[in-house]
Amino acid sequence: MIEEGGKRGKTMAEKRQLFMEMRAQNFDVIRLSTYRTACKLRFVQKRCNLHLVDVWNMIEAFRDNGLNTLDHNTEINVSRLETIISSIYYQLNKRLPTTHQISVEQSISLLLNFMVAAYDSEGHGKLTVFSVKAMLATMCGGKIVDKLRYVFSQISDSNGMMTFSKFDQFLREVLKLPTAVFEGPSFGYTEHSLRTCFPQQKKITLNMFLDALMADPPPQCLVWLPLMHRLANVENVFHPVECSYCRSESMMGFRYRCQQCHNYQLCQDCFWRGHASGPHSNQHQMKEHSSWKSPAKKLSHAITESPRTLCFQSNQRDPWTWHTLCKYPRPIAYPSTSCLTELPQTPRGGGCTCDFSGSHVNEHSLQVRRRSHVAYAISRTPKDGSVSPYIQLRMGLLSFYGNNWPTETARDEEGYR
Asked: Which GO terms describe its biological process (predicted)?
């Protein structure tokens, strides 16, 4: 009796282990249900090591275990489910290097208990084949488009058209995942779930299916699914930007920039928790950034675009136009940019007697002057990465002249400064 009670207690502890660890992450403080749900499911995915199993390896595991030959409504018991999960993790360890091996027994226990809690809440001890396929194909690693292609293959008929009843069944199964992490009130299955994905009852092909589920924004009931994949893609993205609330010198993951407050940026932890300071408000529109572009890259883009842009936007009434500032013609023709042919062929305010293409101009000194102009432009770049029109103009001139940048004496003679 004592031994049976101890085993029963150990089993209950194993069933609750994943949920206790998830609760310790304090995801419930995230104010937006979409991010909260995606973070919880991403935690389950990583804790069960499902992120290491690609969707194609998962499909192969289905085939090896004979699930492709079974009807979707066929029920399998927990012992067979454990065999399927075991084969997935043992095959995974064979593909991983010896230094990155996972604990197979622990992964099997965590995933098995989570699947039973999510899909066998009534305790029958059985799950349908379609439930197993839908859950594992959704929670494994890989690209979302590959997962949706596999899902479509399971819910389409022989003519390649989606069967609405099967898609409704898929929604019932996949929306049990948010319910399992206590987000059922926000993303649980309802009678209107199918209508939110496809309002009009018409023939749905694969491309239409992908367009609908990968739209921006996606269907409301599945909005957490692409976000979970975006979370996986930005976990190691580094932003060398200071958070305007917590004053952290850098960010990892998502970066959020206010569209109303100047240079107001938040890390993902502060944004998810609704933190705000100064004139910023949670009602302001925020733009989500999943990558960081350095000021040097922005300057490079400005160098490429500024000559063309300045030519097309030239205004004779404006003293700061391209024609006014460019007093020196470029010695080498630029056939790819037609607007440069409109530049005057002789300097304004008198001709320049300096031959910039002559051999008396030392090549090394030209390179030194070019590097000094680049360094000066980068030093004048603000931390937020914005590039002033003056810097764009300076770098545009530098790109326009190349190594034929006028000497200091020539620029002084023409009043360039």
From this structure: synaptic signaling
CA distance 370 to 375: 9
User: Using CA atoms, how far apart are residues 171 and 155, in angstroms rounded to an integer?
Assistant: 11
CA–CA distances in Å: residue 384 to residues 127, 239, 251, 268, 293: 53, 11, 14, 17, 10
Burial of 357 (0-12, 13-18, 19+ CB in 10 A): exposed
- How many alpha carbons fall within 13 Å on the CB side of residue 184? 9
CA distance 154 to 63: 13
296 pLDDT higher than 70: no
Strands lying side by side in the sheet with 286-289 = 265-267, 255-258, 286-289
Q: What's the CA gap between 298 and 287, in Å, rounded?
A: 18
Query: Are the C-beta atoms of 112 and 85 separated by less than 8 Å?
Result: yes
**Token pair in block for residue 198:** 């496809």
User: HSE-up of 7 (CA within 13 Å, CB side)?
Assistant: 4
φ, ψ of residue 170 in degrees (nearest 5): -60, -45
Predicted confidence at residue 44, as pLDDT, reads 96
Q: H-helix or E-strand containing 233?
A: helix 224-234
pLDDT at 399 over 90: no
Under DSSP, the state recorded for 336 is T
* Residue whose C-alpha is closest to residue 64's, from 79, 48, 85: 85
Q: For position 257, what pLDDT does the model report?
A: 92
Residue type at 337 in one-letter notation: T
Report d(CA 49, CA 238) in Å as an integer.
24
Note the pLDDT of residue 291: 86
Q: Tell me which H or E stretch contains 113.
A: helix 104-119
- What does the alpha-carbon distance between residue 62 and residue 56 come to, in Å, rounded to a whole number? 10
Nearest to 18 by CA among 165, 122, 117: 117
